[in-house]
Design brief:
Elements lengths: L3 E4 L5 H10 L4 E4 L7 H6 L2 E4 L3 H5 L6 E4 L16 E3 L6 H16 L2 H10 L15 E5 L3 H12 L3 E6 L11 E4 L3 H4 L5 E4 L13 H6 L5 E4 L8 H9 L5 E4 L19 E3 L10 H20 L6 E3 L8
Parallel strand pairs: 1-2, 1-3, 3-4, 4-5, 6-7, 6-9, 7-8, 9-10, 10-11, 11-12
Antiparallel strand pairs: 5-13
Amino acid sequence: MSEYILNLLPVTEEEKREFEAIAPAAQFLWTGRSRVTAQELAQATVILGWPRPGDVKKAGRLKWFQTMWAGTEEYDGMVPPGAQFTSSAGSNSRSVAEHMFASLLAVCRRLPAYRDRQREGRWEDQGPMKTILGGVVLVVGAGHVGGEFARMCQAFGAETVGLKRRVDGPLPGFDQVCPMEQLDAWLPRADAVALALPHTAATAGLMDERRLRLMKRDAVLVNAGRGSAIDQQALVRVMEEGLLWGAALDVTTPEPLPAESPLWSVPNLLLTPHVAGGMRLEITRKACIRQAQDNLRRYLAGEPLVNLVRGPERREEG
């Protein structure tokens, strides 16, 4: 059976030709959009991109689906049995890491407060600032994004410690790599805590009020993974008590953040609307395309796929 490849990625004409050269016997449908028709789904053996989760579930002939994002939880239970499922983990690492680093420095230098004073037309010194030089930056989630962010912090003179579920040895960007079980031990020692975690049962509510109160009084908290990792009400209470220097959140729960959320008015808390990653940088788009092309070569050759979320399963006979 020939492959019918439904390609929803944001590709150029040259990249279309590259895909077609990789799979000359395949039939391609280029949509450049997330919405697809029932007929398109019925024919698809391969889907590349960001379809609506419910649409993936309807692709009865699907053998492989690669999402254009690193996060995959929206497709839980949606990929048909028997189909391989891969992510684009690592494609937006630079983008997210740069955003985390910029946000960390902005909070250290009190830039959110200065922007507020600017809008009020007030020329007013906001007092002491922070530097990460000589400090400890704890990265909770030492994956692609965490590693990129840690390298930036190292370049600015910080000691970097990464936490992950399984420690297999040293990792670039980190002075130390430790298991997640050491989180409570490191929180009181860290000058900045950066979260780069997916949403899982283990990460939901990870930074609860007890852990927030373990942090240094002048520590900075950064989150660019998933909003569910932080108890937001507890964060408001802790910051209103002056127990943290500041925070930078690119993710919240829910999203969009409701207008009545107290997070909007917490001093020295920087909020951005989940814009750290995505296709906002051309290097991210190109990396996503390269990953899809590499995996397409592997798929056609019967080789193991990169960033495998779920391998092929036996289809139930019925």
